[in-house]
Design goal:
The protein is mainly alpha-helical. About 50% of the residues lie in helices and about 5% in strands. The chain has 2 domains: about 100 residues, no CATH class; about 80 residues, Winged helix-like DNA-binding domain superfamily/Winged helix DNA-binding domain (Arc Repressor Mutant, subunit A, Orthogonal Bundle). The chain has a two-stranded parallel ribbon. Strands 2-4 form a two-stranded parallel ribbon. It has a two-stranded antiparallel ribbon with strand order 5-6. Helix 1 runs antiparallel to helix 2. This is MFHA1 protein.
């Protein structure tokens, strides 16, 4: 909701636990809830903005007003939910095909036809090599400055300035090759070259009934 021009593909899993009619009903219910949630968000933002504009000293709330207006301008496109049975390889392939079909849609992703400079591919290939190297730890965490020094070596890409590297890292973050939380102060100097490690950690830490599981431990 905070990313400009976001495109979201809802995916419903565990289809194998439901009857066909139940899948259709749940799909309709989920899409209706999403629509209602977005309508409520839009209404709440408009209400907050009106309150700030109608305050006695609106100039004191200019920062809040600008943030709310920025959030209000963020469009969000919700695609039709895809229901899959994660134990069925055919369903996984169906989901993959659906994602690729949407990604290639120029109306949804106008930048899909943009040609990247060769240096982007060179840095991407270099990062893949570094992530697969023997010196890379399983967690895939690397200091940003150290990564910069590695990529500046002759065998990778000499003369790569820091600003360009940061732009390339942002692109690689968007496509999911790496994870770089540059907006979080404690993590801005760390690059995760193995996103799958983060996913594994989140699966261990964030789970259904986590509180009940923790409370059951004596």
């Amino acid at each position: 909701m905070r990313v400009p021009n976001s495109v979201v593909l809802p995916v419903g899993t565990h289809v194998d636990c439901c009857e066909e009619q139940e899948v259709a009903e749940k799909t309709h219910d989920i899409m209706a809830r999403i629509t209602a949630m977005l309508a409520e968000r839009k209404s709440n933002l408009a209400h907050f903005i009106d309150n700030l504009e109608g305050s006695e000293e609106p100039k004191f709330y200019m920062d809040q007003w600008e943030r709310l207006k920025e959030m209000e301008s963020c469009t969000l496109t919700i695609l039709n939910l895809v229901a899959v049975n994660c134990t069925d390889h055919c369903d996984i392939k169906k989901l993959e095909a659906t994602i690729l079909e949407h990604v290639k849609n120029e109306e949804l992703f106008p930048e899909v036809v943009r040609v990247l400079p060769p240096v982007y591919r060179q840095v991407e290939a270099a990062i893949v090599d570094i992530a697969r190297s023997e010196e890379m730890a399983d967690h895939g965490m690397m200091d940003l400055q150290y990564l910069f020094s590695k990529l500046s070596q002759p065998e990778h890409r000499a003369g790569l300035d820091r600003e360009l590297l940061q732009d390339i890292l942002r692109y690689l973050h968007r496509i999911g090759l790496i994870v770089w939380y540059e907006e979080i102060k404690q993590l801005e100097s760390t690059v995760f070259l193995q996103p799958t490690f983060l996913i594994m950690m989140f699966k261990l830490l964030v789970r259904y009934h986590l509180v009940q599981q923790l409370e059951s431990i004596s």
